[in-house]
Amino acid sequence: MGTVPRTQMGTVPSDCPREEIVMDGRELLARLRAMAPEQRRKALEAAGEHAAKSLDEEWPVWVHQGQLPPHDDWLVWVHLGGRGAGKTRAGAEWVSAKARERPQARIALVAANPKEARRVMIEGPAGLLAIARHGAERRDMCWEPGLGRLTFASGAQAFVYSGADGEDLRGGEHHFAWCDELAKWRKAHEAWDNLLLGLRAGERPQAVVTTTPRPVPALRAVLASGQLVLTRGGTADNPHLPPAQVEAYRRIYRGTRLERQELHGELIEDVEAALWPRALIERSRCVLAPEQRERDFFRRLVIGVDPPVSAEGDSCGIVACGLGGDGIGYVLADHSAASLSPERWGRKVGAAVERWDADMVIAEGNQGGEMVEAVLRSAGVRIRVKRVHARSGKARRAEPIAGFFESGEAMLAGHFPELEAELAGLALGGDYQGPGRSPDRADAMVWALSEILLRPTPGEPRIRAILPY
Question: With respect to CATH, is domain 76-263 assigned 3.40.50.300?
Answer without folding.
Answer: yes
